[in-house]
Amino acid sequence: MTTAAFTPPFISPAELPAALRDQGYAVLSPQGVAEWLGLPVAQLEALHADWNDLPPDDYLKDGGRYRTRRHACFTVEADEQATLAQVPHRAHWQPVEYNALHGGMQRWFAPMLDATIAQPVWKRLLQQLGKASSEMRGAAQRWYVEAHQFRIDTAGGIGRPTPEGAHRDGVDLVAVALVGRHGIKGGETRVFEANGRRGERFTMTEPWTLLLLDDARVIHESTPIQPLEEGGEGWRDTLVITCRAEGFQGD
């Protein structure tokens, strides 16, 4: 496995709408994320401790035990305040057309912690993603938001951030934030045109680097991770948030 790391193609927050419109994806640096949110990165970093206590993902059909996670769902309204509301805990569901490995099944993951959801930076992040989704689609509307906290570890020798391979999620906007990584190699992010030949590869190494994707236009994946040292253990923490205009999948 190569250890080369290509630098993400960072843009400024002001360029975000055009980047999503013109190429279907955009990457903000941690400093860019702070500017976009109007809050310091330290407030985001304060969330990271939650990733140390994520319950196992019991639905991995490849037999792996390398993934732990939590899940929560919200709505973001189209009003001027981008009003955010959490909805009752629900299963995560995707059709097999978008997730050939885990699609077609109701997956009840442990809920996110109330203390996380109560943080002002959490509310601000989801509101901004709702606004970005409306800008991308050219119309303000209600967004149905799913949030996933992931830790992928190498305790078994290898961890797979996207065991389903290169995929789309069946939503409008996908946001992938690197929360942290430790003692690993791999975990390269790859983005490809859904209906073309163009693609880009890079490695997110700085905590709170943020990738935003127009799910209708691009497919994405992250390559497997391995420990830097034989017999060692490492992990990669991410936050994945999706915004969908037509209700939650599975309704």
Automatic annotation (TrEMBL):
<dbReference type="GO" id="GO:0051213">
    <property type="term" value="F:dioxygenase activity"/>
</dbReference>
<protein>
    <recommendedName>
        <fullName>2OG-Fe dioxygenase family protein</fullName>
    </recommendedName>
</protein>
<dbReference type="Pfam" id="PF10014">
    <property type="entry name" value="2OG-Fe_Oxy_2"/>
</dbReference>
<dbReference type="InterPro" id="IPR018724">
    <property type="entry name" value="2OG-Fe_dioxygenase"/>
</dbReference>
